[in-house]
């Protein structure tokens, strides 16, 4: 069946259920034993005819990571998972779509079951008001296709992953939208990662994180590729947009097409105006620094003007501001010139990317963003997990970081920003 037809049918079924006062719900069982009443057993590879199943290359064997996909209409969903094994201790991590961290190392004892709930966002390129997002091919149409297809994909990972059941239901909740470059977007493969991918882990159920960032982009690209149009087309009062660009905007100076205190600020204003016009709350985030130290162990500023322009824009437009640039410098300096290497991606032996982060670095930067939301008293901060705490001057020890890596690996550097010289 054609994917667009299948998606339309799913949307009609969902609307029919809502009209009849019944919430649509999808329930799946992964064993062991007979599936509970009302649950569909999952024992086959995904097919378009079936509309759900395991992605090729992995099965629920309690040892290796695997992926499960189900067709869903665009929107936010509450996902409830029951974890545990009758005979063994388990540790399960769940990521959604492209490696968005939802549950981190949930442990169960032999014979114990634990139920956890999180909120996810599913989207397609289509813009309800007309047209669609201008995706980059093949990056977004192939490597990042899971971010844009009409289905939810869950990565089940961990030392002994054990999912017994998954239940999915539509969720009418606030959305926390993200817009930015390669340091924000959902990177498709290890060792690259972004703070946008780690952010969902630090929020309770009841708010959905929708990451619309993309590698190599600027505020200008957001407008030209209609990413902002896509976001505001679905924005509701109470929704929030976090915006962080800067790394790639620097190239506009070299090309003679703009600068931080002219075009950059004007493009920020265009985003702020559009979000406000649709009832949302815009939040400006300054870009984190690149890794580079002087002889005294201080971070060499490479984005100073853009960080200042972002700050000025927030003040002039009266919107919340998160100074990730300042917090990143404190974070890197706390680790030191050598220790900070552990926060950046190393795609191959002897190669260190001093702009893009690995899972540890992005996890810590996500905590910095969460701290910024709390300090700025953004309403979305009301959904921060109860045990959250972070001080960029005292980051989590590298040795204690234990989020399991995803199966896919790449040596290809994300699009856009060149290493700062």
Automatic annotation (TrEMBL):
Domain of life: Bacteria
Limits of the SGNH hydrolase-type esterase domain: 178-332
Coiled coil (UniProt feature): none
Residues annotated as signal peptide: 1-23
Pfam hit, one: Lipase_GDSL_2
Keywords, comma-separated and alphabetical: Hydrolase, Signal
MF terms (GO), sorted A to Z: hydrolase activity, acting on ester bonds
Record-linked InterPro entries: Galactose-bd-like_sf, RhgT-like, SGNH_hydro, SGNH_hydro_sf
Similarity field: Belongs to the 'GDSL' lipolytic enzyme family.
Identification of the protein by name: SGNH hydrolase-type esterase domain-containing protein
Protein species of origin: Massilia cellulosiltytica
């Amino acid at each position: 069946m054609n994917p667009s037809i299948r998606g339309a049918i799913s949307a009609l079924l969902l609307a029919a259920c809502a009209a009849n006062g019944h919430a649509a719900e999808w329930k799946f069982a992964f064993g062991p034993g007979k599936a509970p009443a009302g649950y569909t057993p999952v024992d086959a590879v995904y097919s378009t005819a079936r509309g759900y199943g395991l992605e090729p290359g992995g099965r629920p064997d309690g040892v290796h990571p695997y992926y499960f996909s189900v067709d869903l209409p665009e929107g936010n969903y509450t996902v409830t998972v029951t974890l545990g094994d009758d005979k063994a201790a388990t540790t399960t991590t769940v990521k959604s779509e492209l490696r968005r961290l939802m549950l981190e190392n949930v442990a169960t004892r032999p014979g114990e079951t634990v139920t956890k709930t999180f909120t996810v966002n599913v989207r397609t390129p289509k813009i309800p008001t007309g047209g669609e997002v201008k995706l980059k091919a093949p990056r977004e149409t192939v490597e990042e296709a899971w971010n844009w297809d009409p289905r939810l994909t869950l990565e089940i990972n961990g030392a002994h992953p054990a999912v017994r059941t998954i239940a999915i239901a539509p969720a009418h909740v606030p959305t926390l939208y993200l817009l930015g470059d390669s340091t924000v977007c959902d990177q498709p493969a290890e060792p690259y990662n972004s703070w946008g991918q780690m952010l969902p882990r630090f929020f309770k159920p009841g708010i959905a994180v929708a990451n619309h960032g993309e590698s190599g982009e600027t505020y200008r690209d957001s407008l030209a590729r209609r990413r902002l149009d896509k976001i505001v087309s679905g924005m509701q009062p109470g929704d929030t947009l976090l915006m962080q660009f800067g790394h790639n905007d620097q190239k506009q100076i070299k090309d003679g097409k703009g600068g931080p205190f002219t075009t950059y600020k004007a493009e920020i204003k265009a985003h702020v105006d559009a979000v406000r016009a649709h009832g949302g709350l815009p939040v400006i985030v300054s870009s984190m620094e690149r890794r580079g130290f002087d002889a005294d162990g201080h971070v060499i500023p490479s984005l100073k003007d853009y960080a200042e322009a972002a700050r000025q824009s927030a003040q002039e437009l009266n919107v919340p501001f998160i100074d990730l640039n300042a917090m990143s410098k404190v974070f890197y300096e706390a680790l030191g010139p050598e220790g900070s290497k552990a926060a950046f991606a190393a795609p191959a032996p002897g190669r260190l990317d001093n702009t893009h982060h690995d899972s540890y670095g992005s996890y810590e930067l996500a905590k910095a963003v969460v701290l910024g939301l709390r300090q700025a008293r953004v309403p979305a901060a009301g959904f921060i997990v109860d045990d959250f705490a972070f001080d960029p001057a005292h980051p989590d020890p590298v040795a204690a970081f234990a989020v399991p890596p995803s199966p896919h690996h790449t040596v290809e550097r994300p699009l856009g920003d060149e290493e700062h010289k």
